[in-house]
Amino acid sequence: MIVTVPPRFRRSLPRSVGGVVASVLAGLCALLYPGEGTVSLAVAGTTGGAPAARPAAVARPVVTPPEDAAPAPGLSDGPACPASRDPGWLGAENRRPGDRLALPAGKVTAASVVGYADRSSAACGELVTLQLAGPASAVRLVAYRIGDYHGTGARVVWRSAPVQVAPQAMPSGEAFPHLVEPQWPLATTVAVDGTWTPGFYLIVPVGATGARAGRVLGPAIPLTVRDDASIAPVLFKASTLTWQAYGEWGGWSLYHGPRGSGAVAAAARARVVSLQRPLVGAGYAQMQYMDLPVVRQLERIGLDVAYTTDEDVDERPDSLQGHAEIVTGGHGEYWTRPMYDGLLRAASAGVNLVFLGANNLWWQARLERSPVASRPDRMAVYRSVAEDPVSRTDPLLTTTLWGPAPHFRDPAAVLGESHAAIGVHGGLQVMDAPAWFLAGSGLTGGSVLPGSVGNEAAGYNVRGQNPATTQVLLAGVLRGARGPAVVSADYSTRPSGAAVFAAGTTDWACVPAGECFDVTPPAATVTAVGILTRNVVLTFAHPRAGLAHPSSPVVPFVAAQLMPRLAPAAIGSYGAATPENDTD
What we know:
ten-stranded mixed sheet, six-stranded mixed sheet, disordered N terminus
């Protein structure tokens, strides 16, 4: 059933009030028409510019949802939310039949349907509203839970009734701080009930009628489903703020504006971005290559996993405790102060930390609310003390690099490594690695993983505030215009017993999947990195893993000393960035 709210009523209501009205209408319709399943609310919109951020041709894969994937019932009719889950629930989940998903591209055209959710995550029992825009048409939304599922990689858990989509005007980002905020009308409401097993979801728009029926019409909308009572050993934190920093819907990201190139585009970048806008372009690639492959590997390992997002941790920093390990994907670059503080408290409590990437803990972000929002829906990152309006009143919230003033939090103090370079290609060689790390991989001291380093890199740096317990497990050297730089995978332990692993390259996250956006790694490297990741996750699944597996401190070295010890495949290159890079 579709209930249409005329534009004249929508324009007379604030955004938040409109959402309440929509929810009330949905409830009334559910009572009056109990057999109709989920009630979809379509708000008639205004016409205007195309929703695409950067028009580009893109092939549209075909997705055929299973015919028995019925529309989700309302919360009152659907399966109840379980009070708790028995240990091993995730293994049982992944033994269910799966559905293959050809992941939609992050690029869009004027013919695409794009959308966003009103939140990055939801717990069972909550409602999620979705906003959509595109050429006037009827679409269905198909929700895929990402997992293993006998190698298929996903399972359909829900699909909507037909939803009417209309064009929406593109808001302008010309005025400083170049905030592009769509505030589109409500398209449909999703009731997250007991059918939505906790996990990482992609909601895909597909055609509902005619020649476009079943065809993917635009990028997927990510949604994390939480279980806030979970005591699963593994907690995966989706780096949603990093996605949004790179997101370029509307032409502005935290990196560039829509015109010019190089320094010109960078100077016109956004200082504040909306958290409620379509995820497209480079931001979508962050989700696709840095987090999605890690989710699939965690689900394949078989341990129970809980899921959260950056926004959730900002709201509830101590939710990082209560698990044996916290896993961050390939690129956790943006952290708010509550998030960072919560991470430090978790490590002090013996929670192990796994960073399957590089360039982590780099920029302080700050979450803010728009005038009509009930929760933070904007992220500010000015990168400059002079520009940030809070720098004088609350300097500790200034959105600059974590390392220098006013924060003085060197990421190396947590990670045991420092950001080294971007635009990198290279490999890693086994250095002083313990048996638990190499188990089952066939690797020994001196073995090389060619093609394991890509995109961005971090490594042991004698100038960093590294923990005294830091041990270099794998290492390579990158050559470039500013001289050689070390890239390394590092392990350290804390007085609390917490163990910390930092992989040293953003491509570590995607290599086990066999496909990264910049390279296709060799098959032997794919297998080996997958096994090493599994060993870390399984070893860290016990709190205070560092007590059972203390690290062996490295003898400090620099790239020039390391290079003669390396095989050619462990010596790579970096691009325009430098080892002293402080802008990415």
